[in-house]
Every structure is written in C-alpha cells, then in structure tokens.
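debug: dumping io for the single-chain case to check the tokenizer round-trip. Nothing else runs in this session.
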Amino acid sequence: MSPLYAIVGFLIVQRLAELAFAHRNYRTLAGQGAIEVGRSHYPAMVALHASWLLALLGTIEPSAPVSTPLLVAFILLQCGRFWVIATLGSRWTTRVMVLPGARRIRSGPYRYVNHPNYLIVIGEIAVTPMMFGAWTLAVVASALNLLVLRIRTRVENTALEAVYGDSEPAPPAGPADSEARRRLGDSDAAFR
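debug: decoded output
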C-alpha cells in the first residue's frame, strides 16, 4: 500500500472517530447546560479539513517518497492530539462549548498553552503534505487554516472569558448560567 494512502486513511478514520466522540460529548455537555458559541464558523472548519484530505489525495502522487523526519514530526503531532483529547475527556468536542459551574481545564498540555489542539492542527496541516514534498499544498492549506483559526480562537477566548473569567473556579450553575448566556449573547454576531 502507498504510504500516502496509509496516512490519509489513518487521518480519515481518526477524524471519523473524533467526530463520533465529539458528538457524544456534545450531547452530554448540552444536557448538562453547556453553552455552544460560534456556530457560524463551524461549517468552514469542516469544509477546510475535508478539502485538505481530498487535496492530499488529489495533488500528491501515491508513489511519492516520504520524508522520515517529517513522518516522525507527524507521529509526534498525533501523540499531542491524543494528549489533548485525553486531558479534556468528556469535555472534548469539535465545537466551542463552555460549561458554567465547571472548572476551566488547566492540566495536561493546557498547563503550557491555551490552545494546544490548534497548534497541533497547524502543524499537521503543514507537515502532512510536506512529508510528501507537496509544499504548495502545505502553504495554501496552512494559510486557509490560519484564517479559520483566527476566527475560532477569538470565539473561544471570548466564550472562556465570559464564563470562566480569570478565576480558576467557574461560578456555580443556576443563575450564573443565565448570566453567562447573557454575556455570550444569543447569536454568533458577537463572535465575528
């Protein structure tokens, strides 16, 4: 089997498993009163990731050689992704969800950086095509990813600040939930 097909196949299976896990967590979090924000940018994220996977298959020759150092970087990025998911556990989703009454997670990679998953995605979107010599795809996909992540991090930072503020413990559920909803607003317009 072509290394390209093996890696893209791995990524597709990984993404599908992540979506299933994220959907389950989304339902659980919503049932606990979590607030979703930034829905308007989510389709762009999905389209970007799906297009990137298709572009890997459409622009790279299946027989392209693999750069061993970049393959190692790819594997390390995947380890980082699993670390992020394991750290967030039942609070990991592909959407921006905040849970009033819960503590903001500051363990695992979140001890060191606010958005470790986004750093991993930045690396993955660049490293995967470069691993096969597809530098143009790496640059174009990375630029598009940075545009989407610019919106995403703004949405997430605003939501985290509105619900958790600078303090470690979040306010208790109940009235704080309606206060958090008021601060977050009823539409995505506040997050553009």
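debug: round-trip ok. Residues 167-177, 186-192 have pLDDT under 50 and may be disordered.
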